[in-house]
Amino acid sequence: MTSRTDSTEENVNMEKYWRTRDFKTSARLHLQHWLFQSTLGFVLIPSIREALANGRTTPLRVADLGCGNGAWLFECANLLPPSAQLYGFDIQPVHFPAATNIPPNVKLMERDVLDAKLPDDLVGSFDVVHIRAFGSLIRNSDCGPVLRAVERLLRPAGWLQWEEADTSAMTASAGRDDGARSCNMLLSVIKAGGRANGTTFDWFATVGDQVAAANFNYTNVVKFPLKSEQYKAWTEDYLLVYEEVAQMVPKEKDVPGAPLTREKYEGMFDQVVKETNEGAVIHSQHLIVIVGQKAA
Ligand SMILES: C[S@@+](CC[C@H](N)C(=O)[O-])C[C@H]1O[C@@H](n2cnc3c(N)ncnc32)[C@H](O)[C@@H]1O
């Protein structure tokens, strides 16, 4: 017999999420990019910038895994010397800007970064590998596949900078009692959908140890609290995701009597929007930056 929770989980397939996108997804990623930048106050964390400034003999090489629309890479290109070579890899190139509109030292490439078959001239060649908002690729709290990809690309003593919203700390709240009821319900549905795909958020607690175990001899995990005046902007960013998730939920006619259907999800989403219009907010409380230096 299938329990109510099991049926709900089976009905939301987050894995399909990254396959169905349009310009709104890229706009959302731009909003998220500027929210990250405003919260962190840096493109490259000062400890990495300082390390890079010392004793270079070859052009700097930077890779961004799952680069989306390239927003982070373009800002990074602005702060590095023009000799730096920047590469963005994404499994889905639909959000890449036109090649004529990007700096000449930035290359965007369609690649599955979890696939070991990366061009030989790139393997072991990067001074910095950057990842941001890649949490949906972590299955069963195992960061191994992502860290192996990073490790393969870094040169000895190269640096990892990995930024995430701490989705283990997602919260919904409102100024008045019960003002975020539907928001909390929606968070539970999203969590259940993630669990069905092996996406749990407890890896945040062990990521430092996992990096250390993956041939990195320096690791540091730093938390950056969100600014409360930006909770509304973060809420809007998450609402855009949750609105898209509706497309992943089957309609009532396809799963008659299921505890979660597209129609029920959309009804709940309308209530969520109403609550947020009245001041409820949904956010991750803080960002996490994971820094690692590969063994020399
Ligand atoms: C949440 S978006 C983040 C985009 C970008 N890092 C940012 O912060 O704006 C995740 C990105 O990872 C990409 N992605 C997912 N799986 C991937 C894989 N196996 N290899 C490369 N890119 C992948 C998606 O296509 C999407 O662009």
Write structural notes for this entry.
- InterPro entries: Methyltransf_25 (IPR041698), SAM-dependent_MTases_sf (IPR029063).
- With 296 residues, the chain is an alpha/beta fold.
- The chain has one domain: Rossmann fold (3-Layer(aba) Sandwich).
- Helix content is 36%, strand content 20%.
- It has nine helices and nine strands.
- It has helices spanning 4-11, 23-40, 46-53, 71-79, 144-153, 181-196, 207-212, 231-245, 262-277; strands spanning 61-65, 85-90, 106-110, 126-132, 154-165, 171-173, 216-225, 281-283, 286-294.
- Strands 3-2-1-4-5-9-7 form a seven-stranded mixed β-sheet. The protein has a two-stranded antiparallel ribbon with strand order 6-8.
- β1, α4 (71-79) and β2 (85-90) form a beta-alpha-beta unit.
- α1 (4-11) packs across α6 (181-196), α2 (23-40) runs antiparallel to α8 and α6 crosses α9 (262-277).
- 34% of the residues are buried.
- Residues 1-15 have low confidence and may be disordered.
- The site of S-adenosylmethionine has 17 residues, from α2 and β2.
